[in-house]
Write a structure and sequence with these properties.
The structure holds 2 protein chains of 2 kinds.
Chain A (H helix, E strand, L loop, with lengths): L3 H19 L16 H4 L7 H18 L5 H19 L14 H4 L1 H24 L5 H31 L1
Helix pairs in contact in A: 1-3, 3-4, 4-6, 6-7
Chain B lengths: L1 H9 L1 H20 L1 H29 L1 H17 L24 E11 L5 E6 L12 E4 L2 E9 L4 E8 L4 E5 L4 E5 L8 E8 L9 E4 L11 E9 L6 E8 L8 E7 L2 H13 L2
Antiparallel strand pairs in B: 1-2, 1-12, 2-5, 3-4, 3-12, 4-5, 6-7, 6-9, 8-11, 9-10, 10-11
The chains are: A mainly alpha, B alpha+beta.
Chain lengths: ~170, ~280
Amino acid sequence: MISEVTRIILRFVGLVALQVLILDNIEISGFVNPYFYILFLALLPVEAPGWLVLLQAFVLGLTIDMFSHTPGMHASACVFTGFMRKFLLKFMEPRDGYSNIVTPSLQVMGLRWFLVYASILILIHHFFFFFAESFRFEGFFHTLLRIALSFLVTLTLVVFSQYFIFRLRDK
Amino acid sequence: MRNLLLFITRYHYFFLFILLEFVSLFLLIRDNYYQHASFMNTSGKVTGLIHEGFSGITEYFRLSEINDQLLKENALLKGQLRSSYFQYLTDPDTIVDTIYKQKYEFVIAKVVNSTTHKQNNYFTLNKGKSHGVKPGMGVICGEGVTGIVREVSDNFSTVMSVLHQKVLIPSMVKKYQEPGILHWDGKDHRYAYLPNIPRHLKLQKGDTIVTSSSSAIFPEGTLIGTIDKIDNVQGNTFVDLRVLLSSDLKKLSYAYVVVYLFKDEQDELETRTQNDK
């Protein structure tokens, strides 16, 4: 059995590696830049204290920043996403609470809940990130289109990854 | 004091968020010059507009004065035309023996990592400090200009490619030697933009754009690209050019780092002049 902490650390390393080594190098077009690593924030334990989530989001963002020459850009987006996550979880709390639920993953929470949860989280992150990246409101629709397309790709990756891991555990 | 501490511990979540967000935004603004510039720009834009509008009005009152000035200048220039001179000397052309001194050296490097799909793109070369590469040097490839060295380690260097919004390349329309500053707008990796070229030049699609001499980091006349579209805004005295970049940065595999041999000499002279105010 691996403990929850080890699992989180492994997930961190795996997702960062996947993001900077593979996803950042796939150049589908200037419009599609999936930021799949955000799955890390989505899958943090429900009961994790807020300050810890914020710190982890900051470290995650900085790590990605270091690899992509963008100091502060991913970090600010991640911290903001981490901050909003608490309210999102409260807002989407099931009727009988999160009793016994550690990780808000797809197989635990069900497809519908997870889809809404992941979509909102990814949208928050992408909105913040892409506007921080272009840092202006000129070309507003251009940025909006980039957000929309990247969002779709990231969401697809996030949802598929859940099924993939589910299958592996089944065996 | 106790109350303050209580207040902070009670809302520690919010305060930590503000603190971390502040740190990241500080990093973002400090490091990225482009972000920095656009932070300052909004104020500059407003004052610029006001200045422009005002000078448009005051100019009318000085028209006759300006006319006089121009007439005088015309007369002076006409006097300097070759046709206004009489040739006295008939001695043959002297041949001046010029000793050429090498001005540029090129370090060949392999591109080991590159992106073209971001707002600010970089690529990494496998040559660094130990091969004589220094920050600020230009990088070209066989087809044309590709970037400017940002940071170097012992054996590697990262290069801000032309597809980086911070990279501004002094360039000119080759046919007319008309200078301008080329930049990228963060959208399509094939095109860069050269704004504010006077409208009266007879520009055509396909005219070549090369580097100008005002920055020595690239050899003068290095190919950048060709004019792809001329943006003609009605009533404007300037046109904006869309330039098709000659080097395909997506397929870049080898590049040359341009070592400007007189750089130290020029820098030293220039700082000496500046300090001498």
